[in-house]
């Protein structure tokens, strides 16, 4: 990726520590589907054993019926059961071959269905569990890991495991059955010539061992760069409006082109080695077939060559050639099995890495259940810093009584939004405590805590679905009338009715078909429908026009009446009636009081108010600089 800084995330670290990932995933998820695996493996044995019937029966028939070089005998069939008449022998052979072909086809169908039930069942369970694990991770994980990388794990890597459990396991059984069966049949037919055919096996094993060692790091890199590509594409599509308005299409194209080149290079590293290994395997097995043909052919028409002794019948020679051909394909298939294994192993390490990332935000052993809470909030000497960064909050200490409103103001980066995230327990404090109704939020059931808090942010998110579904999100059992009442309270009912299908109108991914103000009012309706005891407003009117702000503010006044409210202010006029205003700077509370009291102090709040109200023309340089850094929006 050029000169970009390369650093290891938490997921990368746990991925590198994962040991025996495929065996671990098989033990954890395969046991629940093992009945299908057993059926698949057992039928595989009989399926591929049936493939050996035809050449063995043909060889016997040629020698006994056509050339009459030997008596008619079939392995595992008692001699009294065999007919003496050559015509009967011919038709018996025909029947056995037909039964083997038909039975093999039926068994192959059973094998395929069973193995696929197993493979897809395992993939389903892994995909669901990895997604559920991702949902439980704290926000620190998502701060450090890009969305495309996680999507690659949930989609591509689970798909690679499915391919491995489906194809590789079945083909491994096929190779094992055929190799053992053919080896036994060859040794039984002619031990000397069998040693010629089987002489390739040690070479194939050694070649495969070398390939596994060399290909593993290439597959690891391939999975990593595919995650980078997914991230780059996801970012480009998510920010398509910015790309177009900034006319940076070529810049984004170049970024995708660059990471696509990395993917191309990584894949070619794998393919070049694979295409060296596969032809090499085929060359070795083909050479074994050729050697068998030359030595066996000479043996048939001119006697035993070199140091060989004894006789070789035409039928035995035919059996050798047919069985050797049966052996050549599976041995060459080892390359694909190893390919699937290494690809799945790299994916398995990434999945296990995600599974191993610790869940930091989880319930205490005996969590406190929040029911009918009053809404009292307390920050007790709270200190916090994001992972790997400097302290964001330092000694933040305040309390909000039930039903009161506290407003947080300050310049960009002061730590206002971080205060809100700690109340929601998206992160845990480093020192101090955050309490609700006297309970440390770390001791409270996480679901109860978050269900009791209604959060409205500046960046409203809507899912791709209908307007009604987005309002109902979090209260999925709410009826249509309750949804409409919530929309009316949020000043959203009128514009929703004007949409093409009203509440059934699809809003598009992230709500792109709606304006910012419309999305914000739907988000408010969502919170109103939930009816929480505590309201968190993170610059809820920062990105809307004056008329829309008036409508939203009117619905906010209704929403926050008689509820405990923490409001992060963008426009100070919206919080002038707050019971308490806290002014943050560099993670500390530097001023506190109500609107009138803070104006009287003539400190930072008064100067911020003056900037917004246009009442101060000649400001000190430090306040001009502070105002230019941001319009008192928050971190």
Walk me through what this model shows.
With 635 residues, the protein is α/β, with parallel strands linked by helices. Among the domains are: 24-226 and 278-356, ABC transporter transmembrane region fold (Up-down Bundle), CATH 1.20.1560.10; 373-452 and 572-635, Rossmann fold, CATH 3.40.50. Helices cover 61% and strands 9% of the residues. The strands form two sheets. It has a six-stranded mixed beta sheet with strand order 6-7-8-3-9-10, sandwiched between helices. It has a four-stranded antiparallel beta sheet with strand order 2-1-4-5, with helices on one face. The longest helix has 54 residues, at 249-302.
Give the low-pLDDT segments: 1-7, 615-620, 623-635
Q: Number of helix segments?
A: 22
The CATH class of the domain at 24-226 and 278-356: Mainly Alpha
Multimeric status of the protein: single chain
Beta-strand segment tally: 10
End-to-end gap? 30 Å
Fourth-tier CATH superfamily name of the domain at 24-226 and 278-356: ABC transporter type 1, transmembrane domain
Summarize the structure in short:
The chain is α/β, with parallel strands linked by helices and 635 residues long. Helices cover 61% and strands 9% of the residues.
């Amino acid at each position: 990726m050029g000169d970009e800084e390369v650093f290891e995330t938490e997921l990368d670290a746990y991925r590198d520590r994962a040991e025996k990932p495929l065996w671990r995933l098989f033990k954890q998820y395969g046991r629940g589907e093992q009945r299908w695996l057993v059926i698949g493996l057992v039928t595989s044995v009989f399926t591929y054993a049936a493939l050996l019937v035809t050449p063995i029966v043909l060889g016997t028939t040629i020698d006994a019926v056509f050339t009459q070089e030997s008596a008619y005998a079939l392995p595992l069939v008692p001699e009294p059961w065999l007919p003496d008449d050559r015509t009967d022998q011919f038709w018996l052979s025909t029947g056995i071959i037909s039964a083997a072909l038909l039975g093999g086809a039926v068994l192959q169908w059973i094998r395929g269905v069973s193995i696929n039930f197993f493979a897809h069942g395992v993939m389903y369970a892994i995909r669901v569990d990895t997604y559920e694990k991702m949902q439980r991770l704290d926000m620190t994980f998502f701060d450090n890991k890009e969305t495309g990388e996680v999507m690659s794990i949930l989609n591509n890597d689970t798909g690679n495991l499915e391919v491995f459990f489906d194809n590789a396991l079945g083909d491994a059984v096929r190779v094992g059955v055929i190799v053992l069966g053919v080896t036994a049949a060859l040794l039984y037919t002619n031990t000397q010539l069998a040693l010629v055919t089987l002489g390739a096996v040690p070479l194939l094993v050694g070649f495969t061992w070398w390939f596994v060692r060399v290909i593993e790091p290439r597959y690891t890199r391939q999975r990593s760069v595919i995650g980078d590509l997914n991230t780059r594409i996801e970012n480009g599509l998510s920010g398509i409006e910015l790309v177009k308005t900034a006319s940076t299409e070529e810049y984004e194209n170049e970024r995708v082109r660059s990471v696509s080149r990395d993917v191309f290079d990584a894949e070619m590293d794998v393919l070049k080695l694979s295409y060296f290994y596969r032809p090499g395997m085929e060359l070795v097995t083909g050479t074994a077939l050729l050697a068998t043909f030359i030595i066996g052919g000479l043996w048939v028409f001119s006697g035993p060559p070199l140091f060989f002794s004894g006789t070789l019948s035409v039928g035995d020679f035919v059996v050798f050639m047919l069985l050797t051909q049966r052996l050549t394909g599976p041995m060459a298939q080892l390359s694909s099995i190893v390919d699937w294994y290494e690809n799945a192993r790299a994916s398995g390490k990434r999945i296990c890495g995600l599974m191993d990332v610790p869940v930091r935000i989880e319930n205490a052993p005996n969590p406190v259940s929040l029911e009918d809470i009053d809404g009292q909030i307390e920050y007790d000497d709270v200190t916090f810093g994001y992972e790997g960064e400097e302290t964001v909050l330092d000694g933040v200490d305040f309390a909000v009584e039930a039903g009161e409103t506290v407003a947080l103001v300050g310049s960009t980066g002061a730590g206002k939004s971080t205060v809100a995230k700690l109340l929601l327990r998206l992160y845990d404090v480093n020192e101090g405590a955050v309490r609700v109704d006297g309970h440390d939020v770390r001791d409270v059931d996480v679901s109860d805590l978050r269900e009791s808090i209604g959060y409205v942010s500046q960046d409203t998110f809507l899912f791709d679905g209908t307007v009604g579904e987005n309002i109902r999100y979090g209260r999925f059992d709410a009826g249509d009338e309750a949804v409409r009442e919530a929309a009316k309270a949020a000043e959203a009912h009128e514009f929703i009715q004007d949409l093409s299908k009203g509440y059934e109108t699809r809003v598009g991914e992230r709500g792109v078909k709606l304006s910012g103000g419309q999305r914000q009012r739907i988000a408010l309706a969502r919170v109103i429908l939930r009816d929480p005891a505590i309201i968190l407003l993170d610059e809820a009117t920062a990105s809307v026009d004056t008329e829309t702000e008036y409508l939203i503010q009117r619905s906010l006044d209704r929403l926050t009446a008689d509820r405990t409210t923490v409001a992060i202010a963008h426009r100070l006029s919206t919080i002038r009636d707050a019971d308490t205003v806290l002014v943050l700077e560099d993670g500390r509370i530097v001023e506190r009081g109500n609107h009138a009291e803070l104006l009287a102090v003539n400190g930072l709040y008064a100067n911020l108010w003056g900037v917004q109200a246009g009442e101060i023309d000649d400001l000190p340089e430090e306040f001009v600089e502070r105002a230019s850094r941001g319009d008192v929006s928050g971190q």
